[in-house]
Amino acid sequence: MIFKANGWSEKLSNPTDKHTQKPNKTVTAVLKGPDPGYITTAICIVHSAIIILKEKDKLPLSGGVFTPAAAFTDTSLMKKLEDRGIKLTFQ
User: Fold this and answer.
1) Backbone dihedral region of 47: left (phi > 0), alpha (psi from -120 to 50 degrees) or beta?
2) Residue pLDDT, tens place only, 49-89
3) Distance of alpha carbon 3 from its chain centroid, rounded?
4) What residues are paired with 60 via a beta bridge?
5) Contact criterion met (CB below 8 Å) for 34 and 40
6) Looking at the DSSP assignment, which residues form a beta bridge with residue 25?
7) Is 88 helix (H, G, I), strand (E, B) or coil?
8) Which region ranges are annotated with the description Disordered (predicted)?
9) What 8-state DSSP symbol labels residue 76?
10) Which pLDDT score is estimated for 20?
11) What is the full DSSP assignment across 7-67?
């Protein structure tokens, strides 16, 4: 699967701040692995749950809803997915 996202190259200092200019950066992510509809989805969900149970100390301490990148950035999730044949690269 190929994902494309538009955004900004600079990070805002405060989450409540808003960008004043149009997005100036495009990122392309390529996900390679087994069938994305069933097999990869199941592997991602199961390993995410395992990480939540076993690596609580590496998850954000407070907040509400997080993107997967924000929630799992300090965990071993990507290593576990790579061990199962799922690879995510950015171009």
Assistant:
1) alpha
2) 999 999 999 999 888 888 888 899 999 999 999 999 999 99
3) 12
4) none
5) yes
6) 7
7) strand
8) 1-24
9) S
10) 92
11) E-SSPPSSTT---SS---EEEEEEEESS-IIIIIHHHHHHHHHHHHHH-GGGS-SS-S---
